Amino acid sequence: MFIGHFAVGFAAKRFAPRASLAPLLAAALFPDLLWPWLLLLGWERVRIDPGNTVFTPLDFAYYPWSHSLLMCGVWASAFAWIYHRMAHYRPGAIAIWIGVMSHWVLDWVTHRPDMPLYPGGPRLGLGLWSSVTGTMVVEILVLAIGVGMYARTTRSVDRIGRYAFLLYVVLLLVLYVGDRSSAPPARVAEIVWPGIIAEATLLAWAWWFDRHRALRPSVRSDGQSR
């Protein structure tokens, strides 16, 4: 998934409203944030293989350290522990742990059987990527739900909070559709550095507009509705 992971981060704001949106999104995206760096180090491998699935030309040949279920549990626990030590906000730490773990679950739904349970272990996947229409319908629907939960939890306090947020969602959709319709990359390097830059930019942007939004009066700081 791509925008489906963003949806989890947006939705998490409902359950941990005092947390900044940026770490909530970073948690849901965490294996994908780690993956390009491990590719650069040569610890994981991906191949350009058009036709590998109808939705993506990438063959995820080896990525147990970033994407196995076991390692997601390790990264989730480490991220949540560091966040709790820094923010002292238990709902945020729980949301971050769930966010990282959700990445494996959503990828398991979309990927062919290449999602490892643990390094060297069996690889699973339900294969939603075998259907372009099915994939896009599911991801866009999931994003709509996540964005809707975020919008019902927060309100804009100025123009940045309103329009930077709306533009962010539109850009996610444009990137998603554009990536689907673009030609396959010629080299792995063409996805590594653009991915690193795009992810960093999107996280910084989310931190920015979230600071210009406030909790709605009906939402308590613990995430419960009044």
Tell me what the structure shows.
With 226 residues, this protein is mainly α. It has one domain. Helices cover 64% and strands 8% of the residues. The chain contains 8 helices and 6 strands; from the N terminus they run H-H-E-E-H-H-H-E-E-H-E-H-H-E.
- Order of strands, main sheet, comes to 1-2
- SSE sequence, one letter per element: HHEEHHHEEHEHHE
Radius of gyration: 17 Å
- Counted up, domains total 1
Class per helix and strand makeup = mainly alpha
**Mean pLDDT across residues:** 94
Number of strands: 6
pLDDT < 50 stretches: none
Query: Into which percentage range does the β-strand content fall?
Result: 5-15%
Q: How can the largest sheet be summarized?
A: 2 strands, antiparallel
Number of helices: 8
Termini distance?
A: 34 Å
Helical proportion? 55-70%
Q: Can you tell me the overall shape?
A: globular
Topology:
Layout: H1 3-15, H2 21-41, E1 45-48, E2 58-62, H3 64-67, H4 69-87, H5 90-110, E3 115-116, E4 123-124, H6 132-153, E5 154-156, H7 159-181, H8 189-210, E6 213-215
Antiparallel strand pairs: 1-2, 3-4, 5-6
Helix pairs in contact: 1-2, 1-5, 1-6, 2-5, 2-8, 4-5, 7-8
Q: Any descriptors?
A:
mainly alpha, 6 strands, two-stranded antiparallel ribbon, 226 residues, 64% helix, globular
Give a brief outline of the structure.
This protein has 226 residues and is mainly alpha-helical. The chain has helices at residues 3-15, 21-41, 64-67, 69-87, 90-110, 132-153, 159-181, 189-210; strands at residues 45-48, 58-62, 115-116, 123-124, 154-156, 213-215.
